[in-house]
Amino acid sequence: MTRAGRVTPVRVRRMRAERTVEEDDVLATEEPMEIRVVSLEDGQEASRSLSVTMRTPGDDFELAVGFLFGEGLLRSRRDVDRVVYCETPIAEQEYNVVSVVLRDGARIDLHRLERHFYTTSSCGVCGKTSLDAVRVQATYDIPRDRPRVRREVVAGLPDRLGGGQEVFRETGGLHAAGLFDANGRLEALREDVGRHNAVDKVVGHRVLSGRVPLSDHILTVSGRASFEILQKAAVAGIPFVVAVGAPSNLALGLAKEFGMTLVGFARGDAFNVYTGGHRIVERP
User: Fold this and answer.
1) Domain total for the chain?
2) Which domain holds residue 243?
3) Catalytic residue of the set 12, 123, 126, 136
């Protein structure tokens, strides 16, 4: 199997008021990726399929590790021996199947994820049960009073995020998640057709490099702030989330529950602060 790229070339007929032309164009690639966990059971390697997600190819290992970390199945980089694409002696390389191989002795609670589920960019969760699940998964405490971020830094984050969206500029069809420090310096950015996948990729990048929790960082996302995005931030110990779009009521509830700062509708020099405004410095 050929490794898919992040964009797919197409021909498009552009119909305008005065003329119609056919031109080359590119679309954001969307393909399924299966995530498997391989552990040692009774001296034998056992592989379990946990999820299939629609994603933009690229940073697949980060996506797999970030997803497992966000679900509370991985606690740190020490749980992971290696991450590989599926390999069998009789089949071609399957770049759409990723296996996270646990180190010898690592144990994760797979019973909490005893479901084969299909994840899309619009999937949702709801209710008190979901909040309870996040409490179990979130092993890092959210710092109460940091980071302290200047108002102008918050206002500038969406533009800095957009400036790093290379594939979006080509296709207009990808979400992005960026990790910033308190001074607005971009430390990591990932793009994907799924907004939650973009967050998983950013978090997975930091888990694989052994740099969690992310207690002094700001997560900025290109779309709305869903419950799932706030959940992933909380599990990674991120206290500050900025969204270009609107938050949902459940996202706000989770942010309040964990003492996080939640900013929405961040565009130009304006934004709404829904909770945690004490972390935003109005004036020097």
Assistant:
1) 1
2) 149-281
3) 123
